[in-house]
Amino acid sequence: MNETLSIVIYVLVALAVVGSVAALLVRTRRTPKSMYPTRRDANDPVTGSAAGTDTLEAPPGETDVVVPDDLRDLEETPAPPARTIETPEPVQGRLARLRARLAKSNNALGKALLALLSSDKIDEDVWDEIEETLLLADLGTEPTMELVDALRSRVKVSGSQDPQEVHAMLREELIKLVDPTMDRSLAVERHAETPAVVMVVGVNGVGKTTTVGKLARVLVAEDKDVLLGAADTFRAAAAEQLATWGQRVGVPTVRSDVDGADPASVAFEAVKAGIDGEVDVVLIDTAGRLQNKVGLMDELGKVKRVIEKQAAVDEVLLVLDATTGQNGLTQAKVFAEVVNISGIVLTKLDGTAKGGIVVAIQRTLGVPVKLVGLGEGADDLAPFEAESFVDALLS
Ligand SMILES: Nc1nc2c(ncn2[C@@H]2O[C@H](COP(=O)(O)OP(=O)(O)OP(=O)(O)O)[C@@H](O)[C@H]2O)c(=O)[nH]1
């Protein structure tokens, strides 16, 4: 009897022990995970993963940095209710579509040049017309002269009037002008301790916010962890516009709800959140500043200096609107005096036959065009490649 009683007691004790261990395990699993509890590695989940059914992940935790007075309301956009995150179009498909669009918008230029070069006899009048066509495409005076001179002497030396041969020569000379040797890669690789930081600058209305949104999509499609900083505190709706772009691909946005808050502080907080959250890339949108307003341009320099207190700025992308032609060049020069521009984003190339501006800008600044905007759609941003650009012009 005694023996039976001890067995029953043993069984009860054993059951109680197993029960409490199980309860402990379940509770441990339910403990919410912080974004990256330890150093991030390849197995960590990607915030805002491109997977079509993912929901938004909470933005990085609070920072312990002292927030300036006018930024008391600085906040990261609260995680919105679960929503479907868009999957950006893969790079290859996007490029093929955009190439076709570029070819279409520059059709007039390509057709005019080929028609001229196909004439029975390439005489002085034809050369004059070629010159005029290139100038109208915003190639700029010096590059136009160089190209026409080079082509003339090649045609003379070869004695060829065969349109196909002349076309091939024109292609080669144009590629030389666009310069395939320039490094057009984007510096978006994370450093050991800090994210890559990309600042996007330019005058108002050129497409900065749209470019930041499109670029975030490209990076998310490449499985990068991205965070946006809305340092455009000048235009009230800009932060909202940026946060909407971010939400679409599941990327958090650091912003201030105070109108006219100090943009440098917002940029600082964004980079801080990027460091704490161990993201790969922080993209900073800035206000469209009028390049003739000295105060605003000084402010842009300050934004950069403040960011650099915590992390290197890897790219400063100057956004220029291709439809503004030579005016864009004047803007570019003023910006280059305030910050070191590392690359150009040429937007609205879909709406102009003035693709020649690419050459003029690169010549003036000595900085490569790295990206081109070819439409208002979310995936209408393409890396710039000299050869395919020229092929699109001449197709
Ligand atoms: N067709 C075309 N439109 C574009 C392109 N990029 C931007 N846009 C449009 O240009 C307009 C201005 O774009 P935003 O991104 O708001 O310009 P922003 O430079 O941020 O403007 P501010 O915030 O006022 O400084 C919007 O209507 C965009 O849809 C492009 O590559 N092609």
From TrEMBL:
Q: What keywords would UniProt list here?
A: Cell membrane, Cytoplasm, GTP-binding, Hydrolase, Membrane, Nucleotide-binding, Receptor, Transmembrane, Transmembrane helix
InterPro entries to which the protein is assigned, alphabetical? AAA+_ATPase (IPR003593), P-loop_NTPase (IPR027417), Signal_recog_particl_SRP54_hlx (IPR013822), SR_rcpt_FtsY (IPR004390), SRP/SRP_N (IPR036225), SRP54_GTPase_dom (IPR000897), SRP54_N_sf (IPR042101)
Q: One of this protein's Pfam families, by short name?
A: SRP54
Give the bilayer topology: Peripheral membrane protein
Provide the protein's localization.
Answer: Cell membrane; Cytoplasm
Enumerate the residue ranges of region (Disordered). 35-63
Task: Extract one GO cellular component term from the record.
Answer: plasma membrane
Name the catalysed reactions.
Answer: GTP + H2O = GDP + phosphate + H(+)
Q: What is its EC number?
A: 3.6.5.4
Residue ranges spanning the membrane: these are 6-26
Which enzyme class?
hydrolase
Q: Which domain of life is it from?
A: Bacteria
A Gene Ontology biological process annotation?
SRP-dependent cotranslational protein targeting to membrane
Span of domain SRP54-type proteins GTP-binding:
368-381
Which amino acid positions bind GTP, per UniProt? 202-209, 285-289, 347-350
Q: Name one GO molecular function term.
A: signal recognition particle binding
Quaternary structure note: Part of the signal recognition particle protein translocation system, which is composed of SRP and FtsY.
Say which family it is in.
Answer: Belongs to the GTP-binding SRP family. FtsY subfamily.
- What does this protein's UniProt record list under function? Involved in targeting and insertion of nascent membrane proteins into the cytoplasmic membrane. Acts as a receptor for the complex formed by the signal recognition particle (SRP) and the ribosome-nascent chain (RNC).
- PANTHER family hit by this protein: SIGNAL RECOGNITION PARTICLE RECEPTOR SUBUNIT ALPHA (PTHR43134)
Q: What is this protein called?
A: Signal recognition particle receptor FtsY
